[in-house]
Design a protein that fits this description.
The structure holds 2 protein chains of 2 kinds. By secondary structure, chain A is α/β, with parallel strands linked by helices. Chain A has 17 helices and 5 strands. Chain A is elongated, with a radius of gyration of 23 Å. The model of chain A has no long low-confidence stretch (mean pLDDT 92). Chain B is mostly helical. Chain B has helices at residues 6-24, 30-47, 51-69, 75-110, 124-139, 148-156, 158-161, 169-177, 186-218, 225-256, 274-280, 283-294, 304-322, 326-348, 357-380, 384-394, 404-422, 426-430, 443-447, 449-465. In chain B, helix 1 packs antiparallel against helix 2 (30-47), helix 6 (148-156) crosses helix 8 and helix 13 (304-322) packs antiparallel against helix 14. The chains are: A alpha/beta, B mainly alpha. The interface between A and B is medium-sized, with 27 and 29 residues.
Chain lengths: 368, 478
């Protein structure tokens, strides 16, 4: 063998050794807790719930799963537990489509929880790619197949997190590493599972959620140059199809699980924006409700809450950061309404709340 | 198929290499056919619906080339055949790449409602240009007849097919014909692996690493002054490391087959003028535009005024080559204007005394870099409104965030700037000389051979560990 061939072999072997070492490190530390709950090393969590949920489902103990979008992202698990008397696992994902939610819920239901609390709205059923075609959704990690495990173990970014978690677990280094850990440099900066995507204590809640912010968002989305955004993805037949596949399919396949579904209290401005700038979209929303509510309430394992017409919340614009996202105070209010079984849709008259909403939207006049 | 994928690195490349060298023991032609078929498989893996178009394009251009080279046509007929060939190529490119753009502008002008939804075949801009160059050279009498397998391989050769470098038939086909290239050369293989490793690291660790910061300027939220600058600078470095990483990988892969590809980058952000920048950035495109567009338009042979007009037209069309959007036209026009100003300054401006030459170089480097960065805003923005919006934020220092995150991001961007400005580039590290067909003969680097081997191993390992599920090269969409 020539010297060049030996060098080539050395190079390839050294590279393989480094790659395998990184994989061994990732397997040992297991930042996502995919293979085992953290015992030897400090448990750390990521705010990227598309990734983190794959590990939470396997490592946490729970009897209730909490699912939703950004409208349900800031809840504390401890608040859910306290209000509803359960042991919950929050799996909410910002901007999650019904396909993603259904996929994650299916994975979580393999752990046999008794109950699913599901923040649902019409938007999640808009057209979306399959989870495997979705660039940012690590579907194979949930399946824990060869591809998923390999992508997790042979990841340099994960090895960096593993090293950092390893350093954090060494007692003399722990304080300084904890101080240097931040969400800018690291993917797993959260030390307590209860703190995942919870607003920081120093967050300026009043400065973020106020009438000025919600009215400004209203003006933005009703601007003729941007109002097309209101109708994006709102194709009624496709929404019904997605609803049947992702929601009804899941409910039918899990008759022993209680599905507590709630439609969140958007600010009235969201519907008024549709009324004024995109009436066809508002019609699609109403039509979808008219289809979905009777369908959902037929199932004995479903309890449906419609908070969209709770005027005390939806007409108070100081509750909102834009036209849909409400403050953490409303999160707590929702929990108490769920606990008290308020605004439950009556299976014998499933469209009463829709009629109330229609009347509110029709009557609302914005003071300019 | 992506170079930065497990499938390519662990399965495709080793199989093609083994097949190529095994067939090379028996014949000189079989490895060429094998490589051409492998290239088609590479293309078909993610673009199967456009394989027929690619094959049709090869057949069409080979037939036109045959008429120009073999048949003794009268000059007028030769010109007619060339015109038909180039027009055919441009028609296909126009339909697939510019059909939607043309319809949108027609709709805006005439209030019509034409809808054109055509998928862009990946690599069409590259393989169309290489073949137009072939036809023009055939017309000029600069081409001997090539065998079809060699010509087909020249067009489809997988290291360059998707995003260049733009190859020249006179450079490539003689290499495909050489019998020595079909015998494995451990030296070229080693150098090829190292160059590939550097390119992979540039792509998966550097370009993909800084990519999230680009959203600060071009994302959904209104950026502040510092966020806009961080985002735009992040894009500046992402684009460079992404595209030069791809080019390095192409050169490295090709070297494993014993084939030398032309250089595409030479530390462009070290340029001290815009003229210098275009000698260092996407060099094979610059050469193509110079040889087949600028010179065909008359170049500088028809007086200084027309020279500037020709420069402007060349850059404008160069911009449009990148994509069917007004943002690319503006990007090209900006660079055309920069080049005109640069040439005018060189011809009519004051001469710098040698004493101040280093300071002038530094000033030139900063000015060139800023001019390039401003132009990248148009290159990256989704539309003109978005570009002007980002530029307006970059010009508004009254609105600054400068929080902990922005400071960390700025430090990150500075580290990239240091790499781009002060680190040696791949060909300097490896002593790659495309013209003389030599590599790895840089005595300085090879004296440190053990260190280089293990450092390269680390770079390759980090490059592989950086592979993400979805990370296309930016230039794939051109």
């Amino acid at each position: 063998m020539t010297a060049e061939a030996k060098n080539l072999l050395k190079l390839l072997c050294a590279a393989a050794a480094i790659v395998l070492s990184a994989a061994a490190l990732n397997y040992t530390v297991d930042p996502l807790q995919l293979f085992r709950p953290a015992r030897l090393f400090a448990a750390m969590y990521s705010a990227d719930t598309r990734l983190q949920d794959a590990g939470l489902i396997r490592s946490q103990q729970f009897d209730t799963v909490f699912m939703g979008t950004s409208l349900a992202i800031h809840y504390r698990q401890s608040d859910i537990d306290k209000a509803l008397g359960v042991r919950s696992l929050k799996l909410s994902i910002t901007g999650a489509t019904s396909k993603e939610q259904s996929f994650v819920l299916t994975a979580a239901l393999q752990r046999h929880p008794k109950r699913v609390i599901w923040q649902m709205d019409d938007w999640i059923f808009a057209n979306a790619p399959d989870v495997d075609a979705e660039g940012h959704f690590p579907a194979d990690l949930y399946r824990l197949n060869v591809k998923g495990v390999a992508s997790y173990l042979f990841s340099g970014a994960m090895a960096r997190e593993s090293l950092w978690i390893l350093a954090r677990s060494v007692p003399p280094l722990q304080p300084i590493v904890a101080k240097l850990t931040n969400g800018v440099m690291f993917k797993f900066p959260i030390a307590d599972v209860d703190d995942i995507n919870v607003l920081r204590p120093d967050f300026d809640v009043a400065g973020f959620y106020n009438a000025k912010a919600s009215l400004s968002a209203f003006r933005r989305i009703t601007d003729p140059a941007r109002s097309w955004y209101l109708s994006e993805g709102y194709d009624y037949p496709a929404m019904v199809q997605a609803f049947e596949r992702d929601a009804i399919g899941l409910i039918e396949n899990n008759p022993d699980v209680t599905f507590e579904i709630y439609f969140p209290p958007y600010s009235i401005l969201q519907f008024v924006a549709m009324r004024d700038a995109s009436p066809a979209t508002l019609k699609a929303v109403y039509d979808f409700t008219a289809y979905a509510f009777p369908r959902l309430t037929k199932f004995p394992n479903v309890r449906l809450h419609d908070f969209r017409g709770v005027q005390a919340i939806t007409h108070e614009l100081n509750n909102y950061g834009d036209v849909i996202h409400h403050s953490p105070a409303i999160d707590l209010k929702i929990l108490s309404m769920l606990a008290e079984r308020k605004y439950v849709v009556d299976p014998t008259a499933p469209l009463v709340s829709l009629d109330q909403l229609k009347a509110q939207v029709e009557a609302y006049r914005l003071e300019r | 198929m992506l170079f930065n994928s497990w499938l390519f690195i662990v399965v495709f490349l080793p199989i093609v290499l083994i097949g190529y060298f095994m067939l090379g023991r028996r014949s000189n032609l079989a490895p060429v056919v094998w490589l051409a078929l492998a290239s088609l498989a590479f293309y078909a893996h993610s673009n199967w619906q456009f394989v027929l178009l690619l094959l049709a394009s090869i057949a069409f251009n080979y037939a036109i080339g045959y008429l120009l080279i073999e048949r003794k046509l009268r000059p007028r007929w030769r010109f007619a055949v060339l015109t038909a060939g180039v027009a055919g190529d441009l028609l296909v490119l126009g339909v697939f790449k510019y059909g939607g753009f043309f319809a949108a502008n027609l709709n805006a002008l005439l209030a019509t409602h034409f809808v054109v939804n055509i998928l862009l075949p990946v690599g069409i801009s590259f393989y169309t240009f290489t073949q137009i160059a072939f036809l023009v050279d055939a017309f000029r009498g600069n081409v001997a007849r090539y065998a079809l397998p060699h010509y087909a391989l020249f067009v489809t050769y997988f290291p360059h097919l998707i995003a260049g470098p733009i190859l020249h038939h006179r450079d490539m086909i003689p290499q495909f014909e050489r019998a020595e290239a079909k015998r494995p050369d451990p030296h070229l293989m080693l150098c090829g692996v190292i160059i590939f490793a550097i390119g992979l690291f540039k792509k998966t660790c550097l370009a993909d690493g800084i990519q999230p910061l680009v959203a600060l300027a071009f994302g959904p939220y209104a950026p502040t002054f510092d966020q806009a600058w961080i985002g735009v600078l992040a894009y500046t470095f992402q684009l460079y490391f992404d595209f030069s990483g791809y080019s390095d990988m192409a050169i490295g892969i090709s070297l494993m087959f014993g084939i030398f590809l032309p250089l595409n980058f030479n530390s462009p952000y070290k340029a001290t003028s815009i003229i210098d920048f275009w000698r260092r950035w996407h060099m094979t495109l610059s050469q193509f535009l110079r040889d087949y567009l600028y010179i065909s338009l008359g170049g500088n042979r028809r007086g200084p005024a027309l020279r500037y007009v020709n420069l402007g037209i060349t850059m404008l069309l160069g911009g449009l080559w990148h994509g069917a959007a007004w943002t690319f036209v503006v990007w090209g026009a900006l660079h055309g204007a920069y080049l005109c100003i640069n040439h005018a300054w060189s011809n009519y401006g004051p001469k710098v005394s040698p004493r101040f030459a280093p300071a002038a170089d530094v000033a030139g480097l900063i000015l060139t870099f800023l001019a390039v960065v401003i132009a990248w805003v148009f290159f990256r923005a989704n539309d003109m409104a978005n570009a002007l919006y980002v530029l307006s934020k970059m010009a508004d220092p009254s609105n600054i965030a400068l929080g902990r995150a922005e400071i960390a991001y700025a430090a990150f961007v500075l580290a990239y700037a240091a790499l781009a400005w002060f680190a040696p580039n791949t060909q300097e590290i490896m002593g790659y000389d495309h013209k003389n067909r030599t590599v790895g003969e840089n005595p300085g680097a090879w004296r440190l051979r053990p260190l280089l081997i293990y450092a390269s191993a680390a770079v390759l390992a980090f490059g592989i560990l950086g592979i993400q599920r979805y990370s296309e090269f930016i230039y794939f969409r051109f």
